[in-house]
Amino acid sequence: MFPEIDAVLFDLGGTLVDYPTPSWPVAVGRCLHGAYAYLVRPEHEQPPRVAEVPDPREAGALRGRPAPGTPPAHRVMLALRRVIRSLSGRTLPRMAEACARRLLAASRLYDDAMPTILALEKRGYRMGLVSNTPWGTPEYLWESQVKRFVLEPHFPVRCFSSVVGFRKPDPRIFRAAVEQTGVPAARTLFVGNDPEADIAGARAAGMRTAFIRRRGSPAPRESPAADLTVEILTELLGHLPGPVQHL
């Protein structure tokens, strides 16, 4: 039981949403095909978009300025994005959407995700998402996934690595989420499917942890053991009593 928990943070891909990721050669081939189709085919022949992308001005406003302490590599990446965006207009955002289109379109919410989310919300837990954005993709593609699966109302806190500037297992991305929830790390449970990025990272940030053993989840090796291991998310409900009385 976790009677001392007031907030629950989740990983996105592999924990709440299933992304049937192909092998690297297939993934690269699909990305190149999407980029080529976007560059060569006229607009009316383009496949339907799976994510809305902002124009350059909107993208800059959404991203804002890097926070103090942001790694130099992330600052350089943001600067390059601004340069490319100023030269190419909507090309860069649309290119990213074209490359990731098939992966995003094939995603689905796990059957146990929404029942668990609704039950925890009813019990009063503050909730949030902490997710790495793969392959350097911009956060708005994954925000579109949040909207697609109607997760936005349930997760007011959403920390994506491409915004925060730190990738899991760096504890700083977890601390950024803790700051937004207003709940101390010691009273926060993190739920994820990756022993290193999710469990080791959250533990380093001072959180309690729950490992969801999804099909295809990497096997634990040298990473610190989670406080709890579950086969389905609804098992969490037996370990998280409610309602929560926030101070």
In short:
The chain is of the alpha/beta class and 247 residues long. It has helices at residues 24-40, 56-63, 72-88, 91-105, 113-122, 139-148, 161-164, 171-181, 195-204; strands at residues 7-10, 17-18, 108-109, 126-131, 157-160, 188-192, 208-212, 228-230.
CATH topology of the largest domain: Rossmann fold
Radius of gyration, in angstroms, nearest whole number: 19 Å
Q: Using the 3D structure, state the CATH architecture of the largest domain.
A: 3-Layer(aba) Sandwich
Per CATH, the class of the largest domain reads: Alpha Beta
Total E-strand runs: 8
N-to-C SSE string, H for helix and E for strand: EEHHHHEHEHEHHEHEE
* Major beta sheet, strand line-up: 5-4-1-6-7-8
Count of DSSP helices? 9
Uncertain spans: none
Characterise this structure.
It contains 9 helices and 8 strands. It is of the alpha/beta class and 247 residues long. It folds into 2 domains: 144 residues, HAD superfamily/HAD-like (Rossmann fold, 3-Layer(aba) Sandwich); 82 residues, no CATH class. Helix 9 links the parallel strand 6 and strand 7. Helix 1 packs across helix 4. The longest helix has 17 residues.
Features:
single chain; 247 residues; Rossmann fold; 8 strands
Write the layout of secondary structure elements.
Layout: E1 7-10, E2 17-18, H1 24-40, H2 56-63, H3 72-88, H4 91-105, E3 108-109, H5 113-122, E4 126-131, H6 139-148, E5 157-160, H7 161-164, H8 171-181, E6 188-192, H9 195-204, E7 208-212, E8 228-230
Parallel strand pairs: 1-4, 1-6, 4-5, 6-7, 7-8
Antiparallel strand pairs: 2-3
Helix pairs in contact: 1-4
